[in-house]
Amino acid sequence: MDMRETFVAGTTAILDDDPRTALVLADISASAFDDAERRHPDRVINVGIRESLMVSVAGGLAQTGLRPIAHTYAPFLVERAFEQIKLDFGNQDGNGVLVSVGASYDNAQAGRTHHAPGDVALMDTLPGWEIRVPGHPAEVDPLLRQAVSGDGSVYMRLSTRNNAEPHGDTDGRLVPLRTGRRALVVAVGPMLDAVLAATVGLDVTVAYTNTVRPLDATGLRELAGDAVVLVEPYLAGTSSAAVDQALLDRPHRTLALGVGRTDLHRFGSPADHDAAHGLTPDALRDRISAFL
Amino acid sequence: MTATTKARLGYADLPALLTRMTGDEKHEPSATSTLDVLWVLYDRVLRVDPDTVDDPARDRFLLSKGHGPAAYYAVLAAKGFFPVDWLDDWGSYDSPLGYHPDRTRLPGVEISSGSLGHGLPLGIGVVHGLRAQGHTDARTYVLVGDAELDEGSNHEAIAYAGAVGMSGLTVVVIDNHSSTHGWPGGIGARFAAHGWSTATVDGRDHRAIESALTTALPGRPHVVVATVEDKN
Fold this sequence. Notes:
The structure holds two protein chains of two kinds.
Chain A: H1 3-17, E1 21-25, H2 34-39, E2 44-46, H3 51-63, E3 67-73, H4 74-80, H5 82-88, E4 97-101, H6 119-123, E5 129-132, H7 137-149, E6 153-157, E7 175-178, E8 184-188, H8 192-198, E9 205-209, E10 211-213, H9 217-223, E11 227-235, H10 240-246, E12 253-259, H11 270-276, H12 281-291
Parallel strand pairs in A: 1-2, 1-3, 3-4, 4-6, 5-6, 8-9, 8-11, 11-12
Antiparallel strand pairs in A: 5-10, 7-9
Helix pairs in contact in A: 1-7, 3-5, 8-12, 9-10
Chain B: H1 14-22, H2 35-45, E1 60-63, H3 70-78, H4 119-132, E2 140-145, H5 152-163, E3 169-175, H6 187-192, E4 197-202, H7 206-213, E5 222-227
Parallel strand pairs in B: 1-2, 2-3, 3-5, 4-5
Helix pairs in contact in B: 1-3, 2-3, 2-7
């Protein structure tokens, strides 16, 4: 199963088990939840292609004490409905779980309308949101269950791209996978395999995380010396301030790699876009080596 | 009235409460466009009072049109949701009464509002949430302005609520003809096209307002268009 299928299976089971949960959709993935909707017609709500309504309805459900999950494509969930996220959850003192698919350019051929490299940066302007970026389908279910069983607000960013193996727990800690001396390279979510390939033979520590907010400041302080490389599968620099805050008392350098701001007006494959943004293993190796 | 107790006051006391906020002895219609509807709601319709603000089965009133909340605050104070002397320094840094309401600061306020077009979509979520938890007797009321209907988010909500036959939801539109481009055919027709039951009343006539608010048809959402003096 890919991440979306894992999310569908997990959410379906959660809806069966926990009458406090509800799912709000805007047509995307709706047919995958047909069985769940038949079993729980009051708690599986498809509002049609109305993303701002979807988020507001989720916010309203939270006001009555339910635990809402809202799900659609990343640009429509976070960017189109951003004011609804800001006001109808946080400003109402309400909480919920938002789960996106599409990531930065999973559907590269669809063009800019379906790409959301800025979603995490945008969510990071709001207080209190946990942001989870799983790197493997097997990471999705435990993160989802932890998110829904809690009472905070969580954004889960799912992708069709993943690493060969799952890593990391739900505790939000950095997971060191290689040890070296010259820098700490932090690979976020699906970037790990490219980072592992890029750093073969380099004298660096490589650590993985699927949790970017809150970023593991304790782990950063333990693993980092005076040089940090961030490799994020969304807008480059999204977590630079979090790294700087963690290392506030320590002179350090940071190289922030990720998706560039340029609107490429290109289609093709996700691999094509990786190349355009310098995120292939070769390009990462060149940039990390130059930084060292 | 004493300064700090939560008094239960009447309609005739509202002008004095408004004066505590505005400093003006006379109040322009634009400042009080919602006053009569709000009074009828809290005095005769809503099943919520200061003792039941946390009751999960209470009726909900969502003030979506959050600007110009003086009338709302006056009614809540008159009904004892908070002490009337809280009105005196509204808008100050430490006051729980902002120029837009904040549900985390003021007892009885169901939603924080101010940005137009959020109350009705939120209200649909509230209706779904109440139904899913078996609170089928609780009714959700949302107050919007006619100009607020310019916001597209309302039209996502109007179409959806009508399509699913959302009983339990009543929208009150305060119509002071302030929408820049207007609603040809009338506001009620916009809702009726999506299957809502509709009523249009004089927004100063308490008996008519009460009657319209309490005659919702089963199996569909209900809208009451309360016409008041033109804003301009």
